Automatic annotation (TrEMBL):
It holds the Pfam family DUF1641. It comes from the Bacteria. This is DUF1641 domain-containing protein. Residues 1-20 are annotated as: Disordered.
Length: 163
């Protein structure tokens, strides 16, 4: 008959063996992610070259003071309005159709260019010139757009009054 096993010997690794295995695992991870690590190092070099890394270090070293200043600035009454206005602006942009906004900005940009050109020449338009320009299809389109805009804005303002 066999003898019962009463004592089990566990082989324990020495600290040196554990460290060796840990280093081997880290080296394997580095080898597996070589490209990512190289990209990260390039990014860090660029941040260092531009001084951003130094700014971040300074920011982290003085984070309590910076946080305190930020809280003080946010607690000013004007900041509450800025935050509310920003949120309202984001809401407005979310409601707008992108194609319509693009068309309006394109027209605005072209109009600003034309206005800048006429400001350079300092050309004055008399009453006869104004009457003549009303026959221009571009001016009529713009005036029609502005009248419709004013009508829609008035409609929106009146709806706000009733709510």
């Amino acid at each position: 008959m066999a003898k019962a096993i009463t004592q089990i010997e566990q082989k324990r690794k020495s600290k040196q063996e554990e460290r060796s295995e840990d280093l081997s695992a880290i080296i394997n991870q580095i080898a597996d992610n070589r490209e990512v690590i190289q990209d990260t190092l390039i990014i860090l070099q660029e941040l260092h070259a531009t001084g951003v890394l130094d700014m971040l270090k300074g920011l982290l070293r003085t984070r309590e003071k910076v946080g305190q200043i930020a809280i003080e600035q946010i607690n000013q009454p004007g900041m509450h309005n800025i935050i509310k206005n920003g949120m309202n602006t984001i809401g407005l942009l979310a409601e707008m159709e992108s194609d319509q906004l693009k068309a309006m900005f394109s027209g605005l940009n072209t109009g600003l260019e034309k206005a800048a050109e006429s400001a350079k020449t300092q050309e004055e338009v008399g009453l006869w010139g104004l009457m003549k320009s009303v026959r221009d299809p571009n001016v009529r389109t713009s005036m029609n757009t502005m009248v419709n805009f004013l009508e829609g804005m008035g409609n929106g303002l009146n709806q706000q009054k009733t709510h």
